[in-house]
Predict the 3D structure of the following.
Amino acid sequence: MSWSSGAAEEAEAIAAVSCSGHGRVYLDGMVDDENTEPVCECNSCYSGPDCSHFLTDCIADANGGDPLFLEPFWTQHAASSAVVVAGWHRMSYSYNNNGFISKELERLIRKLHAVVGNAVTQNRYIIFGAGSTQVINAAAYALSPDNSSSPAGIVASVPYYALYQQQEEYFNSAKFKFQGDPYTWRNKTDSGAYTIEFVTAPNNPDGRLNKALLQGPNVKTVYDRAYYWPHFTPITAQADEDLMVFTLSKLTGHAGSRFGWAVVKDETVFNKMTIHMQINSMGVSRDTQLRAFKLLKTALKGEGRELFDFASQTMKARWEKLSSIISLSKRFSLQKINPEYCIFYSKVREFSPAYAWVKCEREEDKDCYAVLQVAKITGRAGNAFGAEDRYVRLSLIRSQDDFDILIQRLNKLVSEENGAKII
Amino acid sequence: MSWSSGAAEEAEAIAAVSCSGHGRVYLDGMVDDENTEPVCECNSCYSGPDCSHFLTDCIADANGGDPLFLEPFWTQHAASSAVVVAGWHRMSYSYNNNGFISKELERLIRKLHAVVGNAVTQNRYIIFGAGSTQVINAAAYALSPDNSSSPAGIVASVPYYALYQQQEEYFNSAKFKFQGDPYTWRNKTDSGAYTIEFVTAPNNPDGRLNKALLQGPNVKTVYDRAYYWPHFTPITAQADEDLMVFTLSKLTGHAGSRFGWAVVKDETVFNKMTIHMQINSMGVSRDTQLRAFKLLKTALKGEGRELFDFASQTMKARWEKLSSIISLSKRFSLQKINPEYCIFYSKVREFSPAYAWVKCEREEDKDCYAVLQVAKITGRAGNAFGAEDRYVRLSLIRSQDDFDILIQRLNKLVSEENGAKII
């Protein structure tokens, strides 16, 4: 080794700091007061220079969808997933004078879908974006009519992922308007109106394999397939929708890398999305594409079994633990989804969704978020998904520390349900 | 070394392939038919498996602003600029539960501005985006009025960078409309209208240190400072505008990394831009931020002298070569900018702009782009900058190969100006 050895030493030294197993040191981490070395960044509920101090009274964070449950997989696959980025790596705007997309990464993505069997990619276009976040927005722009005096209506079934609505409202484009639930919309007489339906399958927050409600010549459908991986759901069929959105975040757990993609049938829609990516950010960072390439190469080892076995087993264990607690409760209930046949594992499987969609059953518990907050659990309130506040989403994909504390708090809450206190 | 050695070996093996000095192999490069190893990706005008074959008749590419002139600096600083990214590096959406921005990278950026003396950052906010592309769009949204029945007008002096107009037209927001040159706009009587002026200084395409034309209570100004580095211009003063936009692309040459930032005075504007980055892409890839961190650390060595000396000398040599050819011509002319005092180099210096803004002087040469195209030179036509097609922009920041071929073609064109042919 010559020029790479300094960087390798630096990375290995950083990785060797354990932070008591409740935190991590990063190369670009906060440094201490003497401005020398990066310090431990502790998981929530842990503190101290080595993250060994447990904050007993802290609040269990079950809010965001940070997919840290996959972090142990990557520490266990350190050698195959590391990547050395040279100072001169891909400085250009384009790949070999030809667009913003790594063809080798595209090839790996097609291979991955073939191995998992969750989506048809033959004769389909693939476009990259900065997470599904940017891809979803590109889809909304690309599917809106070019010359229309009235904007396209964007709809999503309640409960829905809030971003669809937030983006449409924020960008405030003359091209589209958010119009809520398609069920209401379907009863409107204005059937000639141009409509884009976002279908999240499995759904965020409740994990159901939603299907489109609307159809017709002026209806376009975007399938958000972020969670359509064996970790969270039986793979019931090879999806073959016109426009399917995926993200690295919920596949490998690399939310921070901001990498997502769409599989697109129609060339015109693909071309429009390409223009979107150009005008918005000139494509996805080449550094990110290199990293995604290395991660997916590792994920594909052994026909994907290592990654998906680890991820499925973790999610199954978490779901069972949570369900068994809630099953003891009359105050709270969980979504129920019947098992289905999974073509990836070739057997009937239970769902192990990314989120628990908890309902407060007591008449007086109208604000379920507040009920949980009193028990030192932070979820995400139902209204963030266009639903009643009698519902709360609890994230099950966060770090093991976050999940353990959530279970601890839930156990206590359910045990105390009938006035009894745990000693 | 343990887990990092495989990645290090792989990277060094790739880097050792020379591609005859006219191309490069990348880790995620196209592989050959046997699907084994990445192959050489050749510079334009070169081909063959090792890029040794010169395509004599090829067209000199002086169109895009690919800043490959800086690539040799990074190959010369291989050891300090390499970075090893571990598989588990920053998988989370946020930095230590606190936003989308690496505080250590922010600290480096402030230090860099202090060392160069090109911008005030004390008591200013810094926001990151996917290149200045995304930052510029965030600024347009953030500076538009929240509740206005009429959209903000966006203006930029001719000749201007086309992206301002493209973005406004593409996003088609109710919040703003592109309205062309502020000079025209200033004469309008509707002085109460809300206006955002984009000022590019140094200007793209002509390198001038533009100043804002409009002022008033309803005028907001965005200074695009992408080119305000010692490579391209004397640093005449520490810029202290309300909103200044910078990009890694024109500083270190890493266009492909998609990293830009803004220095912002007003907290409300900063908060709005933060929301933009969240809704658009949930911040900049953490992989990119890590790489930018490593690159800027290298750039700051020796108080920035190594990078800026290399870059300034390269640009100076290129500008002098180009000017000396055009000075022999009556058919073509170049922009002229008077030297100014540079506070970074503590002396009066000539400009060495990123682009030549070439004018075709002959009455009949109304389409200067076509004139150059006949001579096998591709520039960018004046109309792309809102200017006459009597002008063409020629990029001087591309690879040495591209520049050498451009000079060859220009030499021939100017030599033949009076009918004489070179033998």
